[in-house]
Design a protein that fits this description.
Strands 4-8-2-1-17-15-11-12-14 form a 9-stranded mixed sheet, with helices on both faces. The chain has 6 helices and 17 strands. It is an alpha+beta fold. The protein has one domain (33-48, 59-168, 197-340). Helix 2 packs antiparallel against helix 3.
Length: 341
């Protein structure tokens, strides 16, 4: 027994004091931030296209008002580039940079001061959505330091630079409207002004041409369904409120309904919709008049007839790809396709 003891002690010394595996430097955890975005692709089969060449019988397509919000727990520096898909080109973006590329610092707390957005812009197509952006700010978004600017969102707008393919194709022949899915299946709504009221009808499209039903349900059914889809896509209550302020009138012929009516009141972060007096305090009257003039270009309830559906995530990436460095740990993108019939 005694002859074994020295060898046992030697083994313990070697085991405790011998070379150790290097542990290496502690890994830095990836940045913890989220990127949320909403936008609308508007297409019209009867749109007017002015060119120097022969007439091209293609629908007008515009990717309107994609707005990006960021959420973070700690400050983080991010490089973001928006890469338009095949057939799309940039028409407008803010803050102004070289191309659709922004270098920013995301500050978790909201911006302390209101950002002054331009009242004019030099977009090649004559449309200026930059001056509307104050309406789409949210209280829950992080503040973005982009150069000298501090603001709670980024914005860009695309137009079609050639023939593009959407998940649904539409044909209008007089009072008859036909549509079919170009890939997969498409589910959405048709909303139209029928017998003096705005009404809605659910639409499900397969690969064969299908005559769209005449809307016969209350429009609020479609509005509640859309709001639920925006929630499922990952938008916060405040972001859904911003979407409503931008699109409830063109989609449903009315200003946004209350949070309770859209089923969003269960979230404490739901954005209160500003009334006209609040807007007047925040922005000069001249700017509001310019914004209202822009809205006059959109369909009113008297001519309202649209079909809309939410794009799947892979379809959104066909239209615009987001390249962020470092990558966010969560991305929520909600893009609606609006066919003006």
């Amino acid at each position: 027994m005694k002859s074994c003891l020295p060898w046992l002690l030697l083994g313990l010394v070697v085991g405790c004091g011998g070379p150790q595996e290097p542990t290496g430097a502690a890994r830095t955890p990836p940045p913890d931030y989220e990127l949320h975005e909403w936008g609308v692709i508007t297409t019209s089969a009867s749109g007017t296209l002015v060119t120097a060449g022969p007439h091209i019988d293609e629908p007008q397509i515009a990717v309107e008002k994609p707005v990006l919000y960021f959420h973070a727990r700690e400050p983080v520096s991010v490089q973001l580039e928006v890469l338009p898909g095949v057939g799309y080109e940039a028409r407008e973006h803010y803050p102004p940079t070289h191309g659709l590329h922004w270098s920013m610092t995301i500050v978790p707390d909201g911006c302390a001061a209101a950002h002054a957005y331009p009242r004019q812009c030099a977009a090649t197509d004559g449309i200026c959505e930059v001056r509307e952006l104050a309406r789409y700010e949210t209280r829950d978004a992080a503040c973005l330091q982009v150069g000298d600017a501090r603001l709670p969102l980024l914005f860009y707008r695309l137009g079609s630079a050639g023939a593009v393919s959407l998940p649904a194709a539409v044909q209008v022949h007089g009072a008859e409207v036909r549509a079919h899915a170009t890939r997969g299946e498409v589910s959405g709504w048709r909303v139209a002004y029928v017998d003096g009221e705005v009404r809605a009808a659910p639409v499900t499209l397969g690969q064969t041409w299908h005559t769209l039903p005449t809307p016969d349900q209350p429009w609020t059914v479609a509005a509640e369904s859309l709001n639920a889809s925006l929630r499922a896509a990952g938008l916060t209550g405040a972001e859904r409120g911003a979407f409503q302020r931008a699109w409830w009138l063109p989609l449903f012929g009315t200003e946004p309904v209350s949070a309770e009516a859209t089923g969003a009141a269960d979230e404490a972060s739901e954005e209160a919709l500003p009334d006209e007096d609040q807007l007047a305090e925040q922005h000069p009257r001249q700017e509001l008049e310019q914004v209202e003039e822009e809205r006059m270009l959109r369909p009113s309830a008297e001519v309202l007839d649209v079909m809309f559906y939410l794009l799947p995530a892979e379809e959104v990436d066909r239209i615009s790809h987001l390249a962020a460095t470092p990558a966010p740990n969560r991305v929520a993108r909600a893009f609606l396709v609006r066919h003006v019939l």
